[in-house]
C-alpha cells in the first residue's frame, strides 16, 4: 500500500487524495492501462471534474480510452455560473395531456413554451420529455425530445451505457435532456465533447486525437527549452513542443487569441495547469480543447437547424 501511495502521489489534486487515486485505479479505472489511467486523471484535473463524486469516468473500448462526463458535473458547473435559477425535467407519457408552442423573443430568437402538461394514472409508456434550464436575465431554455431520438443508446456497443439505458431508461432520458439544456443555457463547453455519453448519462464519446507534427508556435504558450542529453528527456521535450503547438492552434480555432484570453480560459477551465505544466497536463488541456471545439461545432450545427425551422 505504501508503494502505491508513493506511485500515485502526483495524481492527487483538489479533494482527491492519493488513497482516493488508488481506489479509482482499482474500481472505475480497472480496465485502463497505466498510461490511460494517468491520462484520465490529468484530464480530470484539467477539467476540474471529481471522479470520486461521479463527475467523470474512464471507459476503455477496443483499447481506446474514452472520457465521460457525468450529469453531476454539468449541474455543478451550471450552479457555479452567473444567474443560475435551477432546472426542471419531466417525462411525457402516452396518456398525458401535453401541449406546447414557440414564441419569439425581443432579440428575434424563438423559445419553447409549455401550455399544458397534465396527467392521471395509468400514464402509459414514456413517449417523450422536456427539460427547462432557468437563468436570470434570459428566457427559459427548453429541450423537447421524443423517445425515438435516444433509442439508439439501448444498442450502444459500450457495455455500461447499454446496460444503464436498458435497465434505467427513464432516469437516463431525464439526465440526457437536463445535460443538453444546461449545456446550452450556461454555455458549458468543457466537452464536454467528446465526451462520451456517459456511463451515467448520454454524453457524446470522446476519442483521443492523433497529434500532428507541426512547428511549435510560442505566440501564446512559451515552451521552456532546456538542453537534455538524455534521449528519453529529449523525446519528451519534443512531444511537449508538439502538444503546445496543437494547443495554440486549437485556442485560435475557438477564437481565443492573446495571452490574456488564454490565461482567462485556463483559469476557468483548467486552473490546475501552472506556468510550467507537465506533458500529461498539456495533453489533458489539449483533450479539453478538443471537447470544446466539438461542442462549438455541435452548437453551430444546432443553431443552423433552428434557423432553418424559422
Please give a structural write-up.
- The chain has 310 residues and is an alpha+beta fold.
- The chain folds into three domains: 2-69, no CATH class; 72-190, no CATH class; 211-307, no CATH class.
- Helices cover 42% and strands 18% of the residues.
- The chain has nine helices and eight strands.
- The chain has helices at residues 2-7, 18-26, 34-47, 71-80, 159-167, 169-185, 231-253, 258-269, 279-309; strands at 56-61, 64-69, 84-93, 97-104, 110-118, 126-135, 141-146, 206-207.
- The chain has a three-stranded antiparallel beta sheet.
- Strand 6 (126-135) and strand 7 form a beta hairpin.
- Helix 3 crosses helix 9 (279-309), helix 5 (159-167) crosses helix 6 and helix 7 (231-253) runs parallel beside helix 9 (279-309).
- The chain is globular.
- It starts with a helix and ends with a helix.
Write the layout of secondary structure elements.
Layout: H1 2-7, H2 18-26, H3 34-47, E1 56-61, E2 64-69, H4 71-80, E3 84-93, E4 97-104, E5 110-118, E6 126-135, E7 141-146, H5 159-167, H6 169-185, E8 206-207, H7 231-253, H8 258-269, H9 279-309
Antiparallel strand pairs: 1-2, 2-8, 3-6, 4-5, 6-7
Helix pairs in contact: 3-9, 4-6, 5-6, 7-9
Amino acid at each position: 500500500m505504501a508503494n502505491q501511495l508513493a506511485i500515485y502521489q502526483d495524481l492527487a489534486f483538489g479533494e482527491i487524495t492519493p488513497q482516493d487515486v488508488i481506489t479509482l485505479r482499482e474500481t472505475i479505472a480497472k480496465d485502463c492501462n497505466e498510461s490511460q489511467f494517468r491520462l484520465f486523471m490529468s484530464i480530470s484535473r484539467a477539467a476540474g471534474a471529481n471522479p470520486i463524486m461521479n463527475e467523470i469516468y474512464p471507459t476503455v473500448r477496443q483499447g481506446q480510452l474514452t472520457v465521460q462526463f457525468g450529469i453531476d458535473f454539468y449541474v455543478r458547473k451550471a450552479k457555479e455560473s452567473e444567474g443560475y435559477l435551477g432546472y426542471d425535467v419531466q417525462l411525457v407519457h402516452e396518456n398525458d395531456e401535453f401541449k406546447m408552442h414557440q414564441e419569439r423573443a425581443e432579440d428575434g430568437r424563438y423559445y419553447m413554451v409549455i401550455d399544458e402538461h397534465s396527467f392521471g394514472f395509468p400514464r402509459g409508456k414514456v413517449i417523450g420529455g422536456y427539460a427547462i434550464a432557468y437563468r436570470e436575465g434570459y428566457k427559459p431554455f427548453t429541450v423537447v425530445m421524443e423517445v425515438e431520438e435516444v433509442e439508439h443508446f439501448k444498442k450502444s456497443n459500450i457495455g455500461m451505457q447499454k446496460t444503464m439505458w436498458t435497465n434505467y431508461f427513464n432516469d437516463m432520458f431525464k439526465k440526457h435532456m437536463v445535460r443538453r439544456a444546461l449545456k446550452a443555457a450556461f454555455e458549458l463547453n468543457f466537452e464536454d465533447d467528446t465526451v462520451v455519453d456517459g456511463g451515467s448519462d448520454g454524453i457524446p464519446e470522446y476519442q483521443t486525437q492523433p497529434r500532428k507534427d507541426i512547428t511549435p508556435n510560442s505566440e501564446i504558450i512559451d515552451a521552456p527549452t532546456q538542453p537534455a542529453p538524455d534521449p528519453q528527456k529529449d523525446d519528451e521535450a519534443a512531444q511537449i513542443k508538439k502538444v503546445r503547438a496543437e494547443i495554440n492552434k486549437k485556442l485560435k480555432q475557438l477564437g481565443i487569441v492573446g495571452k490574456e484570453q488564454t490565461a482567462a480560459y485556463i483559469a476557468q477551465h483548467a486552473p490546475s495547469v501552472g506556468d510550467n505544466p507537465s506533458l500529461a497536463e498539456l495533453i489533458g488541456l489539449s483533450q479539453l480543447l478538443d471537447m470544446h471545439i466539438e461542442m462549438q461545432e455541435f452548437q453551430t450545427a444546432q443553431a443552423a437547424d433552428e434557423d432553418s425551422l424559422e
